[in-house]
Amino acid sequence: MSTTGSSPTTTSGPGTSGVDSTASQTTEEDGGSSSSGVEPVSWRRYSLDVDAGVWSSVPLDEIWVGPNAPPTTGIVATTALTLFDRIYVVSDAGMVYEQADGVWQTPEPIAERFPAAADLDVSSMQHTPSQGKTSSEDVFLIGPQTAVIYTQFENGGLELANVVDLMDTKGGAPQASVVNDWTVTVIQIEGIGVDVDWLRWYGAYANELWLFNAAFEWTLYPLDDSPFFSGAPGAPDPFDVRAAYHDDAFGRAHFIAP
How many CA atoms within 13 Å lie on the side-chain side of 111? Predict the structure, then answer.
């Protein structure tokens, strides 16, 4: 398992192997993180329109609403699936929040929703859609030196697929020695089988952003000079980001930060 600018460096290395509809339709407003050192009542979702290169942001308490919605602070991991309208959010209290078809489901402790990850200190999540005839996606829960992988089916069912020991790879991300703070999974379904960049996993490790593609190639960028962060107006401080995900349908990268 692996995740995925100034001058990037590309090498070959081994790896293991939803749309937030409510939020996408919300009018977003500019805003920034707190500079006082005091945690805000609500964190914000910063959104980058990848094609236009334009940032916007909105408080989480305006888009994550309802009795089963996630808390608006204390988020440690998120991912939005590609084949299904489903978003996962993990809080620092060890709870899993799941939005399916635009509706937040009853939250569950991680030990109940993903039992194999019960003792994992989850720091990020990512996913990969199936490449065969079966419609499913693999969901990765990433923690220190370990990734727990579940297969997500269209009917909402989950099945444990694997538990992987992460390793540092030569020319690749320091998966075992540095915490993977957040990931962004970008999927282009139409490129499967014809374009190695149909899969792009971006993973933040301290001050570095690593990209991993379907050809098992790694590309390294400085975190603050990368495909997402280059000093554009309205962007969050990349070192403050706590969780992230990509909306494949709308071409937006979303970053959760105070």
Answer: 4
Higher pLDDT, 60 or 35: 60
Mean pLDDT confidence for 86-91: 98
pLDDT per residue over 163-205, tens digit each? 999 999 899 999 999 999 999 999 999 998 899 999 999 999 9
pTM assigned to the model? 0.85
DSSP code string of 113-166: HSGGGTT----EEEEEE-SSSS-EEEEEEEETTEEEEEEEETTS-EEEEEEEE-
Strands (E), the chain: 9-12, 44-49, 54-59, 75-80, 86-91, 95-100, 103-104, 108-109, 124-129, 136-143, 146-153, 158-165, 180-187, 199-205, 208-213, 217-222, 243-247, 252-257
Token pair, residue 145, equals: 């030196």
Separation between Cα atoms, residue 124 and residue 204, nearest integer Å: 9
Q: What is the pLDDT of residues 131-169, one digit of tens each?
A: 866 689 999 999 999 999 999 999 899 999 999 999 998
In this structure, what DSSP letter does residue 248 have?
A: T
Residue 32 pLDDT more than 70? no
Tell me how many degrees the CA angle 43-70-28 measures, rounded to the nearest 5.
45
Rounded-to-integer distance, Cα 24 and Cα 138, Å: 24
